[in-house]
Design brief:
This protein is an all-alpha fold. Helix content is 71%, strand content 0%. The protein contains 19 helices and no strands. The longest helix has 28 residues. The radius of gyration is 22 Å and the shape is globular.
């Protein structure tokens, strides 16, 4: 039976990774975010709004089908970016703060890859590599009969959709999974160097970095000072990136994302009152039952917890790395949702799947401990 499970998990991982890679290149979801990221990449070496505007739309026109380009320039334009170079230029700080992703797009353009292609190629390759890493992690930490849950969960959490996006979410997914692997391997030195840099890919990942650093701080006796420095560096990098590119901050992001998009959101910033925030929060909570990824995460988590109760007396695993990892993912999901009350899979696919992975790893640990304990042996305290 174990051999069957091993063959099955190889097949499932290979299928999902191949599907993500193929869909990412063959059927990219070229939404209007590609305009912002191409413009942000061009703006690294160009300060003239008109030149950036002309280059961006010329680049997109040359990379997509005529019908797709027509949809861009004739569709809704709430930010005014299609007709006004200054409106596009004012919107770029929202994209430029993802500087790690922008630099990769720029680097690929220097070796002959179209910036438009680079935006989704990074996502496709990142998601495929994520599946490869998850396969290795499953072989390392999970029982054979539990491994097939991970590729199926990857489908449920929208990995193949993320692979098609012209956003940094695929790259963010890969870095989250990589850091979780290092956490389970207890690679404290690597983590305290890498975690502060996650905010360069997506600034909200600084919340994930801080949660993981706090967990490392609580369980480490020898490196508390270094971990504390890493926490300060995480906050400093996040604040510094936003300051360098003139990002307007949390309130504007909340407003243009969940209230209404605005032209010139930096020169004419909106106001977010406590009443408006509470209204947005309530609307976000109402939408949660309609978010498939969130429902799968909650459902699988509940199943794992119920199964683990069978082994509760055999093993006390509340201080294990897997248990802490599950808490890190849960806290990140909670804090991120409170800050920006929306449960889009592209934000949470990494924490979702690693939260499930952590529970499965705990179940594996407890099952092994139970099977190795003599039947007549007294249970643990």
């Amino acid at each position: 039976m174990k051999k069957i499970f091993r063959i099955l998990d190889i097949a499932l991982f290979a299928y999902v990774a191949s599907l993500a890679l193929i869909l990412g290149f063959v059927s990219p979801s070229l939404n209007w975010d590609v305009i912002g990221y191409v413009g942000a990449a061009k703006a690294l070496g160009e300060s003239d709004p008109t030149a950036v505007h002309q280059f961006t739309f010329a680049m997109i026109q040359g990379a997509v089908l005529p019908a797709v380009f027509q949809a861009f320039i004739t569709g809704p334009d709430p930010h005014g970016i299609f007709s006004d170079p200054h409106a596009l230029f004012e919107l770029l700080p929202f994209y430029q703060i993802r500087i790690g992703y922008i630099l990769l797009v720029r680097l690929l353009s220097l070796v002959g890859v179209s910036m438009v292609t680079a935006t989704f190629a990074i996502s496709a390759v990142s998601v495929a590599l994520t599946l490869v890493l998850l396969f290795y992690m499953s072989r390392t930490f999970l029982a054979p009969q539990l491994r097939i849950v991970i590729p199926l969960a990857a489908l449920a959490f929208g990995f193949t959709d993320i692979a098609r996006m012209s956003t940094p979410d695929g790259l963010a997914l890969l870095t989250i999974i990589g850091c979780c692997f290092l956490f389970l391997k207890n690679e404290v030195v690597f983590l305290q160097r890498i975690l502060p840099l996650l905010g360069l890919i997506r600034t909200d990942l600084s919340l994930f970095s801080l949660a993981m650093l706090v967990a490392l701080f609580t369980r480490s006796d020898a490196a508390k000072r270094e971990i504390g420095v890493a926490m300060v560096a995480t906050v400093a990098i996040c604040i510094g990136v936003e300051a360098v590119f003139g990002h307007p901050g949390w309130a504007t992001i909340l407003y243009v994302t969940l209230v209404q998009p605005l032209p010139y959101p930096i020169s004419s910033p909106p106001t977010v009152t406590p009443g408006l925030y509470l209204k947005v929060l309530v609307e976000g909570l109402r939408e949660l039952p309609h978010e498939n990824g969130f429902l799968v995460y909650v459902g699988l988590s509940a199943c794992c917890v119920l199964i683990q109760r069978r082994f509760a007396n055999e093993v006390r695993a509340h201080r294990s790395s897997a248990s802490q990892l599950g808490m890190i993912c849960a806290w990140y999901i909670l804090i991120h949702f409170v800050a920006l009350p929306v449960a889009w899979d592209r934000f949470f696919a990494g924490p979702y799947i690693m939260g499930i992975f952590a529970l499965l790893a705990m179940l594996t640990e407890r099952t092994k401990a139970t099977s190795s304990t003599p039947k007549n042996a007294p249970s643990g305290i």
